[in-house]
Design a protein that fits this description.
Length: 268
């Protein structure tokens, strides 16, 4: 993710990465325990997905067929020219944006240790793959992400915090209104059992109709469940909203603190 809130030291081996931060995913390096960790995480999420996850996410996950152990990134079949590349972990924003703009989604190669089943500080392959990759089979969402990447790659430094908010709220923690009810499609939600339930059913968080300017203004905190979620009606809405991105970034309206209300809010 394009996030400036990096842990002090990163776990991955960046010495073996290329200039674009990619590495080779060596499937032989995953142990039986690694595959067991994957299966445990996947099985726990599988029980929650029918009631809480977006249809496109569930369909995408089923099409990927990756429930049986740590997946081979080269085998994923994605929308419209997208493919996965292996990386050691979090990578710098510009490199990340460039990958997205060129329809490559960076996926961390290592998997969390058993003691980290419930929470891992850095995104691992379970978060990156199980959380993000299913939606990359959805053409409108994939088109949005490539267009977002191109905007970020070319953006002035001053715009990067707002672009990070757009990713955070709409890629990591997005909700969608479906005919069956409110569902989660964001990777940060769907790679966490607790947040999957919280985001879609708890009465505690604020839920707002998606509004680009509101999202760009909305600060976030990374170490707690989200106090505010934004709800889209379909994935094309995200792509279309990028028509207004240059103007919205230039407006540079005041930041709204994480979880705070604003007069512009459109409650869902
Ligand atoms: Fe993520």
């Amino acid at each position: 993710m394009p996030d400036t809130h990096w842990p002090e030291s990163l776990r991955g081996d960046y010495a073996i990465a290329g200039a674009d931060y990619t590495v080779v995913q060596d499937m032989a390096r995953y142990s039986a325990a690694d595959h067991a960790t994957w299966r445990l995480l996947a099985a726990r999420q599988a029980a929650l997905l029918p009631a809480h996850a977006a249809r496109a996410y569930r369909d995408g996950l089923a099409a990927l067929g990756a429930g049986d152990g740590v997946p081979d990134l080269a085998a994923a079949r994605l929308a419209d020219g997208w493919r996965l590349v292996a990386v050691p972990g979090l990578i710098p924003e510009r490199a990340f944006f460039t990958h997205l703009a060129e329809k490559r989604f960076p996926v961390t190669v290592w998997i969390r240790r058993p003691a980290e089943i419930d929470y891992v500080v850095e995104p691992d392959i379970f978060h990156d793959f199980q959380g993000h990759v299913p939606l990359l089979t959805q053409p409108d969402f994939a088109a949005f992400l490539a267009r977002y990447g191109a905007a970020g790659r070319d953006a002035p430094e001053a715009h990067l915090p707002m672009l990070a908010r757009l990713y955070w709220h709409m890629v990591e923690f997005g909700l969608i209104a479906e005919t069956g009810g409110l569902r989660a499609y964001g990777a940060g939600i769907l790679s966490s059992a607790a947040e999957t339930v919280h985001a879609t059913t708890s009465t505690a968080p604020r839920r707002l109709h998606f509004d680009l300017a509101r999202v760009l203004r909305s600060a976030y905190e990374i170490d707690q469940m989200q106090p505010t979620y934004f709800v889209i009606r379909d994935y094309a809405q995200l792509f279309q909203a990028l028509d207004d991105l240059p103007r919205a970034l230039d407006a540079a309206l005041p930041t709204i603190p994480a979880g705070a209300a604003d007069p512009s809010d459109k409650p869902f």
